[in-house]
Amino acid sequence: MDVFIAGIAQTPLGRHPDTSVKELARQAVGGALRDAGVDLGSIDAAWFANVRQGQMEGQNSIRGQCALTAMGLGGIPIFNVENACASSSSALYQAYAAIKAGLHDIVVVAGVEKMYYPEKRQAMMEAFFGGTDVHEMQSTWAGLQRIGDGIGPQQAAGGDWRQQSFFMDVYAALARMHMKLYGTTQAHYAHAAAKNHGHSALNPLAQYRTPMSVQEVLDTPLIAWPLTRAMCAPISDGAAAAVVCSEKALDRIGRARAVRIRGMGVSSTVDRAPEALESHCVTLAATRAYGAAGIAARDIDVVEVHDASSFAEVLQIENLGLCARGEGGPYTASGATTLGGECPVNVSGGLVSKGHPIAATGIIQLHELVTQLRGEAGPRQVQGARIAVAENGGGFLRVEDAAAVVTVLDRIQP
């Protein structure tokens, strides 16, 4: 049984201290319903993804029920999903499976996140620690400081991990290891960041819309060598939602703007040596997604990857098979992943420039790809795009993502 995205919407991304989780949900879900041309009464079930509200507001256990019934979506099954930065793509996977099993015909998947609490800045930063094993923080920190030894003028910050930008230091350590193994350079990561800052200038929903050159990226303040501020995703508020349906329901809704979920693959952390990147959990998820979709990497026209840092984009395009292992830096610098290139990546601006409201990011990636496959992306349109892939990672465990979701979409004939 095929499964389709019939409607999708997202809010503008940025810092919105006066906008509540409920309001963000109302905007995103309402927009997705309008996009699909259905009303609240048509929805059989809902999946609600959120990470921060429990920690920052004390709203635990029933976040989805609180947000969705407030807008009139009650009496149906509502499921709460938390899976770090991969929360809303994980919610989509569950909804996709439920429709394939014949349990529901039309459902909503929403990812909603508030991260900016100006009066709770320290608590907001400490909340990130929950995205890894809190019982192994010191050993994880110590191990990561060793993997890139001898590379660059600045090693990992050292000392107490509680005083560091933990996840950016994680990415920096892995970036140094990649440099050590393959000769990747800081400039390669800057090329990825500059490309995405340029792309986001074309995206009216992006948090940052100022183009940057490679040198301008390199000149921004250092976070953890080799990563500068322009190579790191910002704190963001935002939401996205999708109306997902069966083919039977699509016959009622209309096929004209629907996009098919051709296949999905999900994985978790692989117990491996840091250098054994061929066994990375994202590679495993991609293999599963491509198998389910019946495609190869060479068939892909446009991609959104989880570039919480610009190093991550270089790594993930290798994990997705867009280029050979170790060639992500040169491939990016060649212009192959730029709009108009061989396989454009993060035409939305990516997380580093578009923004990264944690639990919402997975559906936000799909919003861009659905827009591309519909041919509605305006000046950032990838011409002739027919097959699109999103890679969404979440958390960190040992040497890689704790969760990974890869989704393959394709354009259907009306």
Describe the structure.
37% of the residues lie in helices and 17% in strands. By secondary structure, the protein is an alpha/beta fold. The protein is globular.
Please outline the helices and strands.
Blueprint: E1 3-10, H1 21-36, E2 45-49, H2 53-57, H3 63-69, E3 78-81, H4 87-100, E4 106-113, H5 121-126, H6 137-147, H7 166-182, H8 186-200, H9 214-219, E5 222-224, E6 227-228, E7 238-246, H10 247-253, E8 259-268, H11 281-293, E9 302-304, H12 310-319, H13 328-333, H14 350-354, H15 361-374, E10 387-394, E11 403-411
Parallel strand pairs: 2-3, 2-4, 9-10
Antiparallel strand pairs: 1-7, 1-8, 4-7, 5-6, 8-11, 10-11
Label this structure with key terms.
414 residues, two-stranded antiparallel ribbon, 15 helices, globular
| Unreliable stretches covering 5 or more consecutive residues | none
Head-to-tail CA distance between termini: 18 Å
Helical content (DSSP H or I, runs of 4+): 25-40%
Number of separate strands: 11
The helix tally amounts to: 15
- Biggest sheet, strands in spatial order? 3-2-4-7-1-8-11-10-9
The largest sheet is: 9 strands, mixed
Look at the helices and sheets and give the structural class.
alpha/beta
Shape: globular
- Give the amount of beta strand, in percent: 15-25%
In round numbers, the mean pLDDT is 94
Calculate Rg over CA atoms: 20 Å
Output the helix-strand order: EHEHHEHEHHHHHEEEHEHEHHHHEE
